[in-house]
Design brief:
Elements lengths: L1 E3 L1 H14 L4 H16 L10 H9 L10 E5 L3 E5 L6 H18 L1 E9 L5 H9 L4 E6 L21 E5 L7 E5 L6 H9 L20 H7 L13 H17 L9 H5 L7 E8 L7 H16 L15 H13 L1 E3 L1 H13 L9 H6 L1
Parallel strand pairs: 3-4
Antiparallel strand pairs: 1-9, 2-3, 4-8, 5-6, 5-8, 6-7
């Protein structure tokens, strides 16, 4: 592992995306969302995605200079077409639009279609909480991964959901979770570090559990949140379906298991996102809401500990701890990911900024 400042990594990503032909405003929004993931310790949704972005770009599945259009725009709703590009820019646009609408009318919902991977869902929900409103974000995916309870074939992507709420003296409550037992990026990281995965994360062909991360990556037979029926996998299955309905059926995105059958192999991924915002002041005085959120959060922190060495955490605490660490010491990247970024930069003739420190000083 080597550590790099977020500023340096941001410049490296900017150089690559610019060389790929992405417009400057899209580059800024994309880099911000990706660095949020890495600084928050959600490294499966940040810079490590560059390999897949490169693959999709070369396969013609990504438009690097997409035309993002507002297809419908009402008082409390909107629908945005992402133009076939990465999801960070249309996702940011959609959440900001939802925030502005709910500031005026108390509630808002904005959908996005014809998009792609947008990073960590929590980034978008937190955009709302940082501006004093409740935010929710969901997204579908380009490839199915979750096997329904009692099933033997994946029928949903990992379909994450994020929910963020502002408080008073406490930081926002930020829940960000996949509806699979584990996000697919966790398998990539386990493989990269030579680790096994827990047995209830994925199945091998035939339905038996597997601890080999490569099996999870090759076959994408991930269990719904809960792992097994006895542990509540039917609840994760239901949540994955709910996210799919909001993100694709409502917006006009593609349902990945039937995309090829319905539209052919050349069809775009057409990933869908959904964003919802609620203004607390539409229900009660904002100061009272913030005080009660603080009361709830403080009570959770005061929960008697099962293990005196392990305090009770509130959603978003691990990410906040990682953010402080990453800001102070830099973002850790494994050597093979540094090499990958170097190769990608060389491939598109972007400047390589991740050189050893001694060589950077001489440059």
């Amino acid at each position: 592992m080597k550590r790099f400042s977020a500023e340096l990594l941001g410049r490296q990503l900017t150089a690559i995306f610019t060389a790929w032909g992405m417009p400057a405003d899209h580059v800024d929004q994309t880099v911000r969302a990706m660095l949020y993931a890495d600084l928050s310790g959600i490294d499966s949704h940040g810079i490590s995605m560059m390999a897949l972005y490169q693959q999709h770009r070369k396969a013609g599945k990504l438009v690097m200079a997409p035309k993002i259009d507002v297809v419908q725009d009402g008082p409390v709703t909107a629908l945005i077409d992402g133009g076939g590009g990465l999801g960070h820019a249309p996702g940011t646009m959609a959440m900001n639009r939802a925030i502005e609408k709910c500031m005026q009318l108390g509630l808002a919902a904005v959908g996005v279609r014809n998009s792609n991977h947008f990073g960590a869902a929590g980034y978008y929900a937190k955009l709302a909480a940082d501006r004093g409103v409740i935010g929710m974000a969901t997204t579908s995916g380009w490839k199915e991964s979750i096997v329904p309870t009692f099933g033997a074939k994946p029928m949903f992507p990992t379909n994450p959901i994020a929910f963020a709420v502002p408080a008073g003296h406490n930081r926002p409550f930020v829940l960000d979770m996949a509806t699979s037992t584990a996000a697919i990026g966790k398998f990539t990281l386990a493989r990269r570090h030579g680790r096994k995965v827990p047995k209830d994360w994925a199945l091998a062909p035939g339905g038996k559990p597997s601890t080999d991360p490569q099996v999870g990556l090759d076959h994408r037979l991930l269990t719904p949140l809960g792992g097994t029926r006895e542990m509540g996998s039917h609840k994760g299955y239901g949540l994955a379906a709910m996210v799919e309905i909001l993100s694709t059926v409502l917006t006009g995105g593609s349902y990945s298991p039937t995309r090829r059958q319905r539209y052919g192999d050349a069809a775009p991924f057409n990933v869908g996102h959904f964003f919802m915002t609620i203004h607390p002041a539409a229900f009660r005085p904002k100061v009272e809401f913030a005080a009660d959120m603080d009361h709830l959060i403080d009570a959770l922190y005061g929960t008697p500990r099962a293990d005196r060495r392990q305090p009770v955490l509130v959603a978003g605490d691990p990410e906040e701890t990682a953010r402080r660490e990453g800001t102070k010491r830099g973002i850790p990247l494994p050597d093979d990911l540094v090499a990958l970024l170097t190769d990608i930069a060389g491939d598109c003739r972007a400047e390589n900024l991740l050189k050893p420190a001694s060589r950077r000083r001489k440059a």
